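Reply to dn_fold:

You asked what the input looked like. This is it:
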Amino acid sequence: MPERFATVDEYLAAQSPQRRAEVEALRALVREAEPSLTEIVKWNSPNYTLDGADRLTINAAGRGPVRLILHFGTGRAEDKNAAPTFAGDPDGLLTWHSDIRASLALPEATELDGKREREAVVAVIRAWMAEG
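and this is what came back:
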């Protein structure tokens, strides 16, 4: 069973240097998009709440890219066969897993250096947070 983390600092300390840098890059984008989010550990990963409601979770498990999961926690019924209605992703950055849950893979560091790519990620996060 994977190690359980009580704090985000513990979570970060357990990551490889490269994985930690990727998680930190995604954390910075989340903070830029919505500074009022509260960062906690939930589901054994950094998780972000707004007014007590789970909204975003960083997933760095496995070998694939670090991903930001955009969701509504467990408070809404999820239909994996229904189409999403979210219109805040004009660049097609999200991969949909249900009508209320999507993931956004962290772009390569070279892509994040570009203003447009960074702004696109931040805009998607802001639009998601506005969905409430």
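The mean pLDDT is 91.
Hope that clears it up.
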